[in-house]
Amino acid sequence: MFSSAICRLSVPLAASILRASVGVAQPITVGAVDKVQAHVEATQAGQTRPLAISSEVYFRDRCHSREGARLQATLKDGTQLTLGENATVVVDEFIYDPVMSRGELSLRVVKGAFLYVGGRIEGVNGAKVQIRTPVGAIGLRGTTVWGGPIDKGYGVVVLNGEVTVTGRRGTVTLKQGQGTMLFADGKPQRAAAWPAGRMKRAVASITFGNPPTHP
Description:
Blueprint: E1 10-14, E2 17-19, E3 29-37, E4 40-44, E5 47-50, E6 56-58, E7 62-65, E8 70-75, E9 80-83, E10 88-97, E11 102-111, E12 114-117, E13 128-133, E14 136-150, E15 153-167, E16 170-175, E17 179-182, H1 196-205
Parallel strand pairs: 11-13
Antiparallel strand pairs: 1-2, 2-10, 3-6, 3-8, 4-5, 4-7, 7-10, 8-9, 9-12, 10-11, 12-14, 13-14, 14-15, 15-16, 15-17
């Protein structure tokens, strides 16, 4: 229904192997843009460029959507990320090497709503996949998950798979259909199904064609 790390770098040895890190002259492509609504841009090494369909997404790009905007991008392993309006995300770490059973993905959502759909990296034995948000960290496995500001707090809801949400004062595990809310105290609420109204606002925040939302 829904469509800070220092990393090691090597040039991809094959289409299925990608390692990204800092310390190189040329930006390393980790994915590409699938869909764009309104104005979305990326900043890399102090240079800002607009993002359009088929634009490359580079390691450590700071991708930002403006008011009323949406962005959908797919990483090299098939991981799909959708941003709502006024959202910012950075790929801090990406290692995908199924031959050597190595997989690591770290996304930093600085602000705004997002939808994450896990790719092949989650199928690598021992893979570490994490999303860091303004209120805590989300550990993922076989997952489709929404997160973002909503109802005067920060919400996370799982549409598929299982995640752990760790705030300043505790951790909660969410299974399919369950969500949690975090407020100023930093303690995740217990896992529970979300009210229909909240789910509708969450979906709207990352749906293309929708006007600006205020969840």
